[in-house]
Amino acid sequence: MGAERARRWKLLPFRSLSLPPPAASKPKNRPPDVTVPPPPATKDNKGEEEVPADFLCCPILRTPMADPVILPSGQTYERACVLACAELGLSLGPDGVVAGDRGTPGGGVAAAIPNDALRAAVRTWCALSGRAAPVAPSGEEASVAVLRAVVAGTQVSARSSSNLSCSSEGAPAPARSASNLSCSSEGASAASTSSSSSGRSSREVDVQVVVRGKEAAKEEQDEPVRVADAEEEAVAKAVEAGDETEVEAAMAALRRATREGTARRCALCGPRLLAALRRVLLSSRHTASARADAAAALSNLSLEPENRVPVVRAGAVPALVEVLASAASPAEAREHAAGALFGLALHEGNRAAIGVLGALPPLLAALADRDHAAPRARRDAGMALYHLSFAAVNQSKLARAPGASRTLLSVACDAAEAAPIRRLALMVLCNVAACAEGSAALMDAGAVATASAILSEGACHAELQECCVEALYAMSRGSPRFRGLARAAGADRPLMLIAEQASPGVDKEVVQTVLRTMGRDSSDDDHTSVRRNDEGHHGRSSLPHRRRVASGSAPPAATPPSSHP
Fold first, then answer.
1. CA–CA separation, 276 vs 301, rounded Å?
2. Paired strand residues for 98
3. Based on CB atoms within 10 Å of each CB, which residue in 247, 379, 420, 463 is the most buried?
4. CA pair distance 295, 275, nearest whole angstrom
5. How many whole angstroms separate alpha carbon 141 and alpha carbon 144?
6. Is 333 in contact with 339 (CB distance < 8 Å)?
7. Other CB atoms closer than 10 Å to residue 338's CB: what's the count?
8. CA distance readout (Å), 71 to 68, 111, 114, 211
């Protein structure tokens, strides 16, 4: 028996058993009258896809958002809808639009943050789907959509509340029959319908009341603007016509209008009205009363902070300077011009421009004019100079102006002047002494001796004393001349007395700093006590003599106002 033969496997060629297409296959065991439904069509065009309303569409407009913003509640809305809610007095909360509830957290234009990521996603979707980028809706469209959302939300809330009330009130008892159950269900549905309709009507009335209230408030706010536009037109036409009677009447009416209130003054401050006032002030052919009323109107307009920059930009400062500097101008017009410059100088951005336009010399002349200028005009001129001297360019101008330092010193050291006027002059001197150029000019004019004389006065006012100490402190910084001038003027004695009487604080430290600069120290109490004992034993000795010398070395009187053009 031989060995068993090995088996050989025969490999047959591989044959695909793919099924024929569905159209070629015939259904088995199917009645001939039954039609096969067509397969669902696939959407090859991406532009026909529905917009995902959950994050690309505004919950109020139901359209893709052009400018989405996020509120603190986490919801995203179209910016126009948020603005419309703010105008209508509504709020956007976590549950949507709330009518008549301003305290709802999460609403408000100020708290809205732009959603740049969602805006980019909307534009990307529009580009892929072949659609145009969404455009922001108008304010009217947004308001209509917001009101519609409020009404829809109130309907839903009314229905839910009515259904809950009906279900709770009409719950069937276990012992009731089927007829009772049917009657109770019909009554519940009727109650639900009536309550929902009444709730909807009441909420719609509330929305209408809110909208009308906002419209009325807006009309009240626009009323002063419309009246101001009419007055501006009338004043401009009267000035352009050139009739003196009409110009005088228009200026008087404008002066009365600027006294009425803040809203009226802000509405009247227009470029055409300011140009008309400027023409009246610069023209000498107009009557004195018309020019005085024009200056008073400008002074009243400058009371509002938002009017100060437009008045300066309209070119009213040269006209005010011309009225204040001209001796032919009416006294009342000069007084109001000083008040207007004072009001304009309160704005920090106007100070350099007012000084460059030449307001410093006439203001200085008005401050020093005791004979012709009214007390109010002098006070306003001093306040204007004080605020203008905060600017470095005006400090240099006052330091370089011929006679300016001596004029200020003469006003400050004149005992016949009122204390407020003297104080204003000293305040301006303190600001001028803050720069090196001004400090040198003041020391050349004798400011150290003048300040020492004022400190040595028997009945020196506390405010004047404080201003003198500040001026001495400003001149003592970085000036090697101050020590010799202060010692020659005898400033150490009144300063040491002030240092002893002053309470610990800034004032005492300033006095001690000035004394150290002079080479003296307020801690030298033995020397002071010995001097006081000598004065007690020998009567008035050297201190009154020092006062007379200091008073005799005061600067000369101020130059007449007519010398300042």
1. 14
2. 91
3. 247
4. 13
5. 5
6. no
7. 32
8. 10, 6, 9, 23
C-alpha distances out from residue 378 to 26, 185, 382, Å = 113, 89, 6
Of the candidates 141, 143, 159, 163, which has an alpha carbon nearest to the alpha carbon of residue 203?
Answer: 159
The backbone region for 408, taken as left when phi is positive above 0, alpha when psi lies in -120 to 50, beta otherwise, is alpha
In this predicted model, which residue has the larger pLDDT, 505 or 100?
505
Render pLDDT for 257-310 as a digit per residue (tens, 0 to 9).
999 889 889 999 988 999 999 999 998 888 999 999 999 999 999 999 999 999
Distance CA(290)–CA(239), nearest Å, equals 11
The Cα 135–Cα 133 span in angstroms is 7
What distance in Å separates the CA atoms of residue 274 and residue 302, rounded to the nearest whole number? 12
pTM: 0.55
Distance of CA 189 to the CA centre of its chain: 57
CA-derived radius of gyration, the chain: 44
Element (H, E) at 111: none
What distance in Å separates the CA atoms of residue 399 and residue 101, rounded to the nearest whole number? Answer: 61
Distance spanning both ends of the chain, measured CA to CA: 151
pLDDT band at 151 (very low <50, low <70, confident <90, very high): low
Q: 195: which 2 tokens?
A: 């309550």
- Neighbouring C-alpha atoms within 13 Å toward the C-beta of 353: 19
Task: Inform me whether the pLDDT recorded for 503 exceeds 70.
Answer: no
What is the Cβ-side half-sphere exposure of residue 529, based on CA atoms within 13 angstroms? 4
Pair 335, 376: CB distance under 8 Å: yes
DSSP 434: T
Task: Quick: pLDDT tens for 473-500.
Answer: 989 887 888 888 988 988 888 888 888 8
Contacting residues for 531 by C-beta, under 8 A, at least 6 apart: none
Which token pair is 138?
């108008």
Q: What is the DSSP string of 266-312?
A: HHH--HHHHHHHHHHHH-TTS-HHHHHHHHHHHHHHTTSHHHHHHHH
Q: Which of 225, 203, 224 is nearest to 157 (CA)?
A: 203
Q: Which residues 6+ apart lie within 8 Å of 247 measured at CB?
A: 238, 239, 280, 286, 287, 290
Structure tokens at 172: 């069937």
Q: What residues are paired with 68 via a beta bridge? A: 78
Question: Which residues, listed in sequence order, are joined to residue 64 by a DSSP beta bridge?
Answer: 57
Q: Which of 162-176, 205-219, 329-343 has the highest mean pLDDT?
A: 329-343
C-alpha span between 239 and 26 (Å, rounded): 100
